[in-house]
Amino acid sequence: MYSTDFPHHFPKNFLWGGATAANQIEGAWNIDGKKLSDAECIKGAQPGTSHRPTLDDATLSSIEEAVNSDSEKLYPKRHGNDFYHRYPEDIKLLAKMGFKAFRISLAWSRIFPNGDDEQPNEKGLQFYENVFKEMHKYDIEPVVTLSHYDVPVSMTLRYNGWASRKAVTAFTNYTKTVFNRYKGLVRYWMTFNEINTGASGFHATGALEDELTTEDEKLQLRYQALHHQFVASSIATKQLHEIIPEAKMGCMLARSETYPATSDPNDVLAAQRANDLNYFFTDVQVRGEYPEYMNRFFAEHHIKIQMEPDDEALIKRYPVDYLSFSYYCSATVSGSHGLNFTNADQVKVSNPHLSATDWGWEIDPVGLRIALDDMWDRYRVPLFVVENGIGAHDQIASDGKIHDDYRIQYFRSHIQQMKEAVKDGVSLMGYLTWAPIDLVSFSTSEMSKRYGFVYVDLDDNGNGSMDRMPKDSFFWYQKVISSNGEDL
Ligand code: BGP
Fold it and tell me: Which portions of this protein are annotated as coiled-coil regions (predicted)?
């Protein structure tokens, strides 16, 4: 609508807060009826080597070996940061910072230990109910991810995870159970964390690729698994609207703005293709349809997605209510030849205008504004930044404190750009930092890749008291929230 005015501030009910995931914080992997999830079957960094195992290294034999091991030291996601036992203390700390919202995920295997058990595990359901009630004590709004890289290992071993249509039935039985149970406690939900990363492997789909040799075979498996997730997401959205009419469902995208290395049209096209490959996911989940530009990709890679007759109608009828996304860094690519959608046609290069974290993630606050402006323009549904943060090696100074100015600087610059996007007219629901309390890194299983406002006394080898201590950024974020983003 035409106006000579524009917003100058964040909205009054802006959801300031932070985000976490069950498999990186809870620990208690085998307590109160819980069974293993895939993430808890990946080893951490081995002392003395530089190898950092990732979930995509998983093979059937490594998973079977993990299932037979009870070592929390070898598998750091099994101890997390002990949120399972310390959640009252943790939520109190978040409340002290003035949090309006806190994102957690539910561990599917805490509620349905094998994924598709006949009855849910009451102790698992009760745990999250207690956590939500604790948040409400302080007027903190829970934001809940239904699946944050979290597939019960039993689903992987029996069905190869999301490769099987059986996962849709099991998952939507789980979602129906939790919507009924947490009615009145949770308004904001999202289905699959960073759903687009499922295009690159096991960590998001729980589908092993041991038997597959060609890239096209792997793509076939992944896009079939992703189709199952799209269908499950639409069914969950339908259920949510029926069971909790006032609740909202979001999709969740890993957004990394991709730039062309130069003004060479081949580079520009390569960057556009990379961005389109991400838009594919939101085109399906927000617009409710498979976009035409993917047909060429599917055909060129011999991908044939098996659909049931109602799938496309279901996806069309039940899109999400809002679009949430993570944003950490941007990427820069140069194109070569062939210009279809394969990664082989793109070469990642470093961006001379940006600095990077210790893990090589290029810090780019302006990229966040570009992403926000672009996505608002394309979809016209409310946007929600549900992850943004910097992993760093924090040091305890001689005064016993952690002076994490680099983290403050990172957040400050991103919030400034987010504010510019609000001025540009973007409808933005909130901002959740990753992660308010130090936790086990997803990609590397390290504890020393720290993100928190709150330090956790725990090292990469699982040693430490797990005691919590606010860093300088804690007090800074407290000020940001109380001024609704004015005092940066
Ligand atoms: C996102 C994941 C999170 C989180 C974050 C930081 O991709 O959704 O689970 O871990 O990245 O990544 P990492 O822990 O690998 O540094």
Answer: none
